[in-house]
Each structure stands twice: as structure tokens, then as C-alpha cells.
């Protein structure tokens, strides 16, 4: 169902359930995501699979669906022979596919257009290090065309997500200035700091003076970091927190497999909500069953 009110108004009433990792649901549907474009490849090759993945999360209870544009960039599509017009159309398609799944749900479901970090299009894991050696102006020029294409597709919110450092956060905030779509800013963190090792309170504070920022928080991190980060985000910014961590497993790039124990516990969402989180979900390796359990733990309206 298409929302009848802005996301910020809904967050003022209660916490909302985000979806989980789009990639693991696509893999569960039999899709090969070993390509450098990751899930964004399917925007051109098999968009129905993306819509089906969104639908799986909507049926599980997700009230906000995040688009398949995390790794979708003009540069990445150009390497596949797509010109600027085709790339812009594929970015718009990411919003359309999520909107179709949202509109088919029996309750209000919002669409968040993913704006992933610069490192994502390199497909080398550098979004978990940050500090790319680029000036903020260069990063802003990279992000602005994609932001404009996604904003033109009219999502309900832009998800500036998995941001590894304050340089990129500044660039993303500059690129979204005046775009006409509200946004959230979400860092990837480790040890209570940004992935680049910066003070997290100062990182959150960059949203000061931006009335279009509806939430600030963390994603793609250890679940055990979520509650503390949410408290810090609320205390620093006065905004609701957004929290969607990974399963707790770690990716071994040499062995090309996930290792370690699952520490994501849907019941933990109650602690995140108590810490000030109003957008709660999961990232890598968190699937529809986990989101359904999270929605139940929060007492969210059932689909």
C-alpha cells in the first residue's frame, strides 16, 4: 500500500521495520551475485527477481524496502556498455521495483533508495576501510549524478548507507542538498568508531542543520554494536536512530565464505528500540525469517 504520509510522520508515532539483506534473498532465489555489479546486475538482466525479493520481505513484515541500487553507479554500468541514459533508467527501475512490491502490500510500506559508498562500486571491500584518498569534492561529484537519478524516481527517502568515514558523509550530504527527498545517514562501524577509525559522535553530528535528515545510525556492522550506536546517535543529533546490522558472521575474502557465529537476535530489537531506534532491520545474511521474527518482537502490524 502506498503511504499516505511522510516517513518522518510515521516515525514520530512508532518504530518501523526495515527489510534485511537483499543479496542473500536473491541468492536464496538461485541468483549468482559474483558479478562486480552484485545485485545491481539484475536490474538489467532479471528485474523480476529483485521485485520477488522485495515482496518476500514485505510479506515478512518489512515496512520499509531498500532498493537494489547500493552498488549501482554510472561508472559501473558504463563498464558494461550502458550509457548515461540507460544507467539513469536502471537506477529509476530500482525504485520502481521496490514500489511495486510496496504497493502490493496490505499496509503502508515506504521505499528507501539505497545510495551506497564510493567503495562499493570498486567491488574490493574498500567501503569497509574508507579513506579512499579522494577529496570530498571528488566524492561529491561521484555521488551527485546517482543521487539526482534516484531522487527523480521519487522514493520516500534516500538511504545514505554503509558510509565508512566522515569525508564520504560530508560528500553525500553535499550531494543530497536540495534534492527534495528526505534521507537517513547510516555508518558502518567497528569498535564504536567509523570503519576509518573516527569518533562516532562527531560523525553523527555532521547532520546538524539538515532538517531533511529523518534518522541517523549504523548498518552492516556487528549486532552487538547496535544499541550503543543508537543511543549515541539520538544523544548527539536529537534524531531517531536507524539500525540494521549484519548477522554477526564475518566474510573471509581469501576463502570466499562466511565464518563465525550468528549473533543477530531479532529479540534484540527491543533493546535497539529502547535506545532510540525507530528504523530497525537487518543487513548482510539477515533474511525474511529474521525480519518476521523482528517484527513479531516489536509487535508491529502483521501483513
Coarse shape: globular
Instruction: Summarize the amount of helix as a percent range.
Output: 40-55%
Unreliable sequence segments = none
The helix count comes to 13
Q: What is the chains' assembly state?
A: single chain
Structural class by helix and strand composition: alpha/beta
Order of helices and strands: HEHHHEHHEHHEHEEEHEHEEEHEH
Cα Rg:
17 Å
Main sheet properties:
8 strands, parallel
Q: For the terminal residues, how far apart are their CA atoms?
A: 11 Å
Binding site for Zn(2+): 220, 283-284
Pfam families: S-methyl_trans (PF02574)
Enzyme class: transferase
EC number: 2.1.1.10
Description:
- It is an enzyme of class 2 (transferase).
- Helix content is 41%, strand content 16%.
- The chain contains 13 helices and twelve strands.
- It has helices at residues 7-13, 22-28, 41-45, 47-60, 74-78, 84-103, 118-122, 136-152, 166-176, 200-204, 226-237, 269-274, 288-298, and strands spanning 16-17, 64-66, 110-115, 157-163, 183-187, 189-190, 193-194, 213-219, 241-244, 250-252, 257-259, 277-280.
- It has an eight-stranded parallel sheet, with helices on both faces. A two-stranded antiparallel sheet has the order 6-7. Strands 10-11 form a two-stranded antiparallel ribbon.
- A hairpin with a 2-residue loop joins strand 6 and strand 7.
- Helix 4 runs parallel beside helix 6 (84-103), helix 4 runs parallel beside helix 13 (288-298) and helix 6 crosses helix 8 (136-152).
- The longest helix has 20 residues, at 84-103.
- The relative contact order is 0.15.
